[in-house]
Amino acid sequence: MNRIIGCLILLLTLHFTVYGNTPQQALLKELNSNIERSGAYDALKVKGIDSIKHTLAGAGSDLTLRFNINQQLYEAYKVFNFDSAFIYARHLEQIATEMNDPVRIMCAKVKLGFILLSSGMFTETAAFLDNINVTGMPDSIRVQFYLMKSRFYYDLAAYNQDKYYTPEYTHQGGIYMDSALHLLPEASFEYKYNKGLQYFMKGNLPAAIACYPDLNQPGLNYRQLAVAACTLGNIYLQSNQPDTAITLLIRSAIADVKSSTKETMAMYMLATLLFGKGDVKDASHYIEKAIAEAVFYGARQRKVQVSSILPIIEQERIYTAEEKTRSLLIYAAIVTLLLIALVVLAITVFRQVQKLKTAQHIITAAHLKQQEINNQLLEANKIKEEYVGYCFNINATYIGKIEKIKQTLEQKLTENKPNEVKFLVNNINIRQEREDLFTNFDRVFLKIFPHFVEEFNALFDKNNQVALKENELLNTDIRIFALIRIGISDNEKIARILEYSVNTIYAYKTKIKKRSLVPSEEFENHVMGIKAL
């Protein structure tokens, strides 16, 4: 209860107003956050690849082991980098030929065909696939071949967009898809995904949506989530449900970033849809990311396709900037005219240049003051955003605890067990709850002011600086001035939050100020000058 009261005091003091975000906006925020961390994801990917390469270096002349390790490297590079994936696919083919193993030779050829297709090299892929015969091969290889052949024709249909050839390409893709589906278990993800894709290519959108796997089912890896969400987003787009399509494409893009997948269409499609909705800023950001991924992977088709929309987005971005510039010029002209009128009026009324200069100084000072106020408001809003989420989370947790205690008390009273009721009440650890409140407050505060302790200690000489204990975020000395920094300067409110008397708070503040390098009357101003992140 004391913790809840403390949070309510914080809320009332900060005068916070809550503005909700839509689920789509929250997903965009998550996507932007993951894009910022994409370098770390890629570094982790490269580290894993380097580990496999290290294993390959110790494989010696064991061809079976070398084939398996090269296959791992191919899978690691398959959607990460075309050139490397192509090299290891060729290595697989060479090793399999040296082993004189028809199954492994065919496995390597299918992988090589897949990587050629992924790069957009349709002519080379067509010639290569015509020389592959999977008759008598294991089902796993036949499935890969039929799915690759189906994708080849589907990609050709999407690339050509021709009234004569496209229907035939779609038909041929469907034939190979039927062959693949015949070999896949109907309950598997691969079956549901590819069956839905087949319905989609045939134009049966409701059947495609109904057939698709549940994206929230446990066990899906990032790659499965990415391809399924991207294709399903395209289906919803064709069904005139762009908002649902955008949400799915965001989920696909997030999964791609987390898995360091560079051979992808989700980011490009998302940028295109956001541009259509007028969100030029996000569209420009995502199309630049899509181009960077296409260039990194080395897919010719993707680079051409993605780059085609960039000039359009950039042109709109420039146009928007020019519109803002024109608006600013108009506003500047209006302000200039007003200033001229003000000067003329001042000369007419006061007849003294000195008074006009004084008035100008006042206006300048007011402008600077307004800027300072605006900066303070921005900082206050940031503080409010952090603490309202923190307080609502704490309140929700404690309401849950109170509800559980209430239910238990009702049960014990109904069962006429007063001793157990007394035990239950005595078992509530108020001190621990208060310590948890302070720890959570400290954590949120340091998130907003990560350098507060260092800058606070800079106000003292080395012998008088506050030394925190191990695992201690803030202590009482710093916590008092942390509350002052977020706008709670009244001693009575500080005392109520920290569970001290007003006199104790006053004594703490006086003792700390006397030790500082700055005058006591200026100490709190220096604390208020510590900037948020």
Structural class: mainly alpha
Largest sheet: none
Q: Low-confidence parts, pLDDT < 50 over ≥5 residues?
A: 1-20
Mean pLDDT: 82
Overall shape: it is extended
The ordered H/E elements are: HHHHHHHHHHHHHHHHHHHHHHHH
- Cα distance, first to last residue? 32 Å
Helix content: over 70%
The percent range for strand residues is under 5%
Rg (CA only)? 33 Å
Q: Number of DSSP helices? A: 24
Topology, number of strands: 0
Explain this structure to me?
- The structure is a single chain.
- This protein is mostly helical.
- It is 78% helix and 0% strand.
- It has helices spanning 2-14, 23-36, 38-57, 63-77, 82-99, 102-118, 122-129, 139-160, 165-183, 189-202, 205-211, 222-238, 242-258, 266-276, 280-297, 300-350, 353-414, 418-426, 430-448, 452-457, 476-485, 491-498, 502-515, 520-528.
- α10 (189-202) packs parallel to α12 (222-238), α14 packs antiparallel against α15 (280-297) and α15 runs antiparallel to α16.
- It is extended and about 90 Å long.
- Mean pLDDT is 82; it is low at 1-20.
Main features:
533 residues, 78% helix, 24 helices, mainly alpha, extended
